[in-house]
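Inputs:
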Amino acid sequence: MAVTRLFGAKIRRKEDLRLLTGRGKYTADIYLPGTVHAFFVRSTYAHARIRSVDVSDALGVEGVIAAFTGQDIKDALGAVPTAWQIPGAELKVPKYMPLAVDRVRYVGDPYAVVVASSPYVAADAAERIKAEFEPLPSVTNPEKAVQPEAPQLYEDAPNNTAFVWRASGGDVDGVFSRADVVVEQRMVNSRLQPTAIETRGVLAVYDRYAEKATVYMTSQNPHVHRLLLSLITGIPEHRLRVVSYDVGGGFGSKIHCYGPEAVVLYLAMKLGVPVKWIETREENFKSTIHGRDHVQYVEAAATRDGKVLGLRVKSYANMGAYLSTAAPGIPTILFGPMLSGPYTIQAISVEVVGALTNTAPVDAYRGAGRPEATYILERVMDLVARELGMDPAEARARNFIPKDMFPYRTPIVLTYDSGDYERAFRRALELAEYWRWREEQKRAREAGRLIGIGLSSYIEICGLGPSAVARATGFGLGLWESTIVRVHPTGKVTVFTGGHPHGQGEETTFAQIVADKLGIPIEDVDVVHGDTDLVPFGLGTYGSRTTPVAGGAIAIACDRIIEKGRRIAAHLLEVREEDVVFEAGRYYVKELPERQKRIQEIALAAYAAGASELPPGTEPGLEATAFYDPSNFTFPFGTHVCIVEVDAETGQVNILKYVAVDDCGNQINPMIVEGQIHGGVVQGLAQALHEEAVYDERGNLLTATLTDYLVPSAVEAPDIVTDSTVTPSPHNPLGVKGIGEAGTIASTPAVANAVLDALAHLRVRHIDIPLRPEKILRALRKV
Amino acid sequence: MPRRMTRRARPRATAEAPQETVPVRVKINGVEYSHNVEPRLLLVNYIRDVVGLTGTHVGCDTTHCGACTVLVKGLRGDSWVAVKSCTLLTTQVDGKEVLTIEGLAKNGELHPLQKAFWENHGLQCGFCTPGMIMSALGLLLRNPNPSREEIKWGITGNLCRCTGYINIVKSIEAAAKEMREKGITI
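Outputs:
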């Protein structure tokens, strides 16, 4: 790599200037002449048969253009596909129609749509739709849903069981029979609402003569959306353009394909005018996917000296009313293998029951399966330590995979690429002044104050992922990534990426990769993404994959450009190719460094393409396409430490200190890495302390506004001390691993462990998250 | 956690037919606009859909998230105050002045708040950013030298899902310093 070292520099972001001046282009910001507006009518019942839907009154409202029911469009549109069909789990995929036809299955399930001249009129008219329902009994809890007496959502999914997925490795029964101690705990991993501040939206326009549609939408993966929308609507893929310029946060919720997205596209075709739909916040909370929601039964076997030998986990995972795009893979493929974490656990067995319930579909939300596993493991470490009267730090130290054991094969199929878990752990303890706080805790307890120290050591599966693994686990596509790196005649560069950053800053980090590789100024590199007519097919941004996988593709494309440039340079310098050295943007003759050509001169020669400029048989132009399919996942890791004080009077938790030491391999832009950790930690601690999606007995979402769903404000966000260790990934072209989800994965158990540690001496063993004041007070009152 | 108020996203039409329109005159970013609007039209919809300034965003339209925050002069005496533009009707700013994110940079030069957010990585997806900056400006106009705690409370009505607020608070601190030193306000 070049000596300029733009790779690794804290450079302010290229994307910021437009976002800071109000010139970002989010979906709602796109206005097309003649646009009409859609409003979806949604079920207020958790479960009901639709007797009739009468739109005639709505059609009478001035300004209303059309109204359709699920019945009206059921033959025009196909079902919304479930794209991750896990094998060997008797998967039942219920029919997921874009608009409900004869039954609604959750509060928020859309069953009709009104189109009008303005969103105001459409909302007014929607209130005139008369629908008759026959209410049916409903169930929202995943554990209750799979019992035989539960109300049934589908005839073809007995006991509401979408799948039963099992995996195991090692001699599980053996280690449990040999164990000195076995700890058991039921844990609820609470349900969450992703809450990107930008809600979802679509603006679709159809050209009847060219038979071509353009869909502007909030997407984390425009090509995947194009493919799925093509399957639902029948519009051929080459006549469908999906554009997603700026996206106001996704956190997984904008990966998935939703019925209304296809309906808006259908309306644009049918009506011949642009149709726009921007979700309200209430709709977003009720019908955009939710995350997590597991009821877990955990057993851990350990030796007297704190070695955890094995785990048995049974989890009831709530899938909601339909199986969303990636849903079956999240609580299974991305959960079970994660259960070994950074530890030398020999034997693990896991069974996951996917439950269909009368709730919004549940799918990938930041971390997606990995936080649910890490939470179990880190609670287990504390419970084992407690059982043995051992410090939780000591228990972890006895279980880490030693750094000389990599590549390390886990009981359930993974091969960890590289790691030095103990080093990050030691650094975190040191920064947190762990042992001093333990002393402080003793003194505080004597004074009647409740101080707690929580640890969380994690690994993350990132860089999704090898296509062979994706396909073997039933994912609908490979998980490679694509790029075109185009050097223009003046040596300026445009990078087209199949990744789709929406806050992660890759317009900057990708420019850093290219500028560093090609030895050119960063100002000379721009990154284009998010338009399926411009960029090659790409899988998009999620799973902390964009920097390792899309970045890897860019690195490979740059290498191809450098090699082609070397041939041209050798021709121009009249030497053999092997005598040409490329360094910091120039090609020079090995023994005569003053004989050189800058890469900009090479670019010009490549496009001029005269006989003196290009060696015979060389194609003109200077660009490279690369599809990078990683050979393995990457495995970032780290340790977070949280110190809290719990107010015994009010149950309020105050975070006194938070330390995050993360290792995501090489860092391209440490400023951005730190930002990802900050945001991730606050999102994760929100699950530990504040946020929870709650349905009542009748399936009403009680947390359908930001009054009730407690997203942290600045006041709830603690200061965070960050540091990192660097253990490059040996198989990634850039040695990078990914950092998008680490904070969220690590912080929930760190904070929960801290709060429960504060209450440990009062014989409080476990409280399910979120650890809100009322729950803490109730637990304190019990003891 | 402070509790937030809730209400219906869009005001209902009171009459059967679409409402009569009323004339409004509003100065936005120094430019005088006059339109006939429905009385129920929210200010944020006026700014975005009628005037075409799309830097002011809608994240909830129920006055929780603050993405739509703008400054208005003339609501409370003659000073600029930060308000959530989804909580005002357009008619309520008739004859008044509004400043949106698009009006903050002067002659191609970023306002200290914009600069500080850039330098301190105070934004990621950028969706909450315009509202966050306008809210911070409202705070700094009434308290040019806030403590860290005052900044946090000052932006508690603006939600950000990406940054964890740490770099936002840092950005506002840095901007406050520059604004004090250089005597910059709006």
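Remarks. Residues 546-573 of chain A form the longest helix (28 residues). Chain A touches chain B through 67 residues (CB under 8 Å).
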